[in-house]
Input
Amino acid sequence: MRKDWELERVFREGGPFYHLHTKPLETGVIFENDIDRAVALVYVAIAAKTVGVEILAYALMSNHFHFILRGSEEMCRAFFGLVRTRLSLYFSRHGRPKVLKSVETPDPTPITSLKQLQDEIAYVIRNPYVVRVDVNPLAYFWCSGFLYFNPLLDLIHPRPTAGLTVREKRELLQSRDLDIPDGLTWVEGCVFPGSFVNYRLAESMFKDAQQFTFKVFRNVESQVETALRLGERPAVNDDEMLSVSLRLCRDDYGVKGPSHLTEEQKYDLARKLKFDYYASNGQLARFTTLSPATVNALYPLAAKPSSTK
Output
């Protein structure tokens, strides 16, 4: 287990760090299938190597991107600009020339503390998990979560670029420009994330695997704080909301669970879950034991169905 002062030293000496993320598309998606994602990942890897930024974590969402980067702000912008240019050409060749029209190079968010870096790495890794119920963030290929503290990586034997044929390069890059920077490796028809993500540096920012796992799965407060800092709506699933509800019952009201609360305390718990953790009305009813009708009367706007799909 690493000591706090060791982590702080690694953070101070390792930066600067930035979180570069785009706003989700209002309509439609960027990636329609895994072929699109595989091509995008190749372009991400090439851009990082070309510009010289280091990727500590990434998530390719269906309609937006997340990257934790080490490098200057200018390098971060150049990195994403190169990714965007290559992807735009790819989509144009495949009949979708306007898919990235509204995706501009975002302002990288500076990461100014070790805690913020830990929280934002965890936030990126957790992002697919809160969007898709079928995703394990520690085993999802289009996110870097499977790289960290994973001894099974040693069982993967990716191919070096020198072993690829011209035809394979064209298929991987979906381009006649076959210039591939040194250091990238390939597995199962895709670039191997371990060859372009500095996951060892990311690991060194956590005391151990236990702290890393806690940050990803259990530290709900930091997840909410990070989402708000990035201008996104926090997403807390039912298991996490239940954990928060039970903790608040224990710490704030001295009872084992919401069924032991007075009616006034249930209203107070509902207020905390709604405004501090962005609980839905359904979650409020489930985790305060108030009736759905009561919750909807308290928060009528939240009870209305969304007009967006």
